[in-house]
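To: structure desk
From: M.T.
Subject: fold request, one chain
Message: Could you run this one when you get a chance? Sequence is below, nothing fancy, just the single chain.
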Amino acid sequence: MLSPLTRLLRGNRDLTTLVICVLLSAIALALPPAAKVVISTIAATPILRPLKRLATAADGLTRLRGENERLRKLAMELVEERAALISQGHENERLRELTHFMVGFAAEERFDLLPATVIGMPGGRIIEGIEINAGEASGVQAGMPVVVPDGLVGKISSSVRGRSLVEPLTSASSAVAVTIERSRVRGIVRPRYGGASELLDWQMDYVPARSDIRAHDRVITSGLGGVYPAGLVVGDVSSVHEGPLTMTVHIDIAVNLSTIEQVFVLKGLAAPSPERDAMMQALLKELALEAAPSDTTEGVPSGGPEGAPSTELEGGAP
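Reply: Done. Structure tokens follow.
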């Protein structure tokens, strides 16, 4: 009788398992209570231990996730704090530069510096204007100089209540009366354009031949014209080419106009008196007579993109 049952169990694994479980259950039921406790303890240990480990691991994972979240928030706070410290450092550096900038003015030429933020740069490849968030409500008027600690940016061309438009040194109509800081040679700085209205650099016009000008000389405003006070940095001489009657002087301006974020409007500069305007007119005529051929230097007119000569100097002196 056992032989057929053995064959049946060997051929059916599920049935074999069932028979074994039934036999073990019957044996467990027949055992005395004390033996049942011992057997259940022994049998439960291999089963409950992995479950306890799993529960412990789950609890540890929960704590780890909470710790990670706390560390993530702390990291974000540290990043924000670092950004704030960097911003404060930049602000302190700007204030330090501004302090040096203010000290550079003569005592009789103290101006109110109105800070403003750049909110727009109309134009394409060439910056034709710079829009700032200070206007007539802050006392800004057309013709006021606009500067940064590095040097001259331009002047206010128009102003409304809450914003103004700055005419930068890249504008085709820009013209600034300047002097060489070292040798005091005077001239007019204008942007120089090539084909397809491409801005090449800035050129110092009306410079007689054999003037004392060298590469790397500092170029500053002369104060003539009544718009820009004397001493504002315009740039440095990049190259000098001697001619028979005039010198071709190329200038690298000091301010990178495409990266400025904050500017200062110089308020308090008095309008030019008729006597000073007459002196400016006489000076321009004298410079023009001394260096008349310079407008055709290198075959490129110095007026603007279309080659039209500029008729204004700073605040409107022809």
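Reply (cont.): The radius of gyration is 42 Å. Let me know if you need anything else for the meeting.
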